Amino acid sequence: MTDINSIKPGTVFAWFMLVLIVRRIVLIVMLIVTKKKTSPGPPPPDTSDRPTRINGAIRNDSENDAYFLILYLGTAIFSYSVNADIVRMIVYGAVYLTTRSIHSVMFILALQPHRMLAFLFGLLCTFAMSLDLVITMSRTTN
Q1: Is this model's pTM higher than 0.70 or not?
Q2: Which helix (H) or strand (E) holds 27?
C-alpha cells in the first residue's frame, strides 16, 4: 500500500483530470443516446427535454469547472512547496467531483432543490480551496 505522504500533487491532479474527462464523456454519450432514440412524431412528455437538459449540464460544467481547475492546479503547484500534506488536495478533488456529478444528474432530471444544494457544496469547496491557497501563499517567504 502506498504511503499518503509519497503521493505527488501532479499525480492527484492527473487523476482528477481523468475523472473529470470521463464524467464529460459519459454526459456526451448520454446526449448521443437520447438523440438517437428520438422517433418521428411527438416525444413522450418526460423525455422531450432530455437532450436540451444534457446539453445544459455539459455547458454548466464547462463554466464552473474552469475556476476550480485553475485553483486546483495552483494548489498542486504552490501548496506542495510549503506543506507536503497532499490529503487536502485529495479531499477538495473528491468533494468537488462528487458534488458536480450529483449536480449534473439533478440538472438532467430537473430536481431543483437538490440541484441547488449540489451547486452550493461545489461552490463552497471552490471557495474553501481558494481561501486555503491564499493562506498557504501568505505563509511563504517572498
Answers
A1: yes
A2: helix 9-36
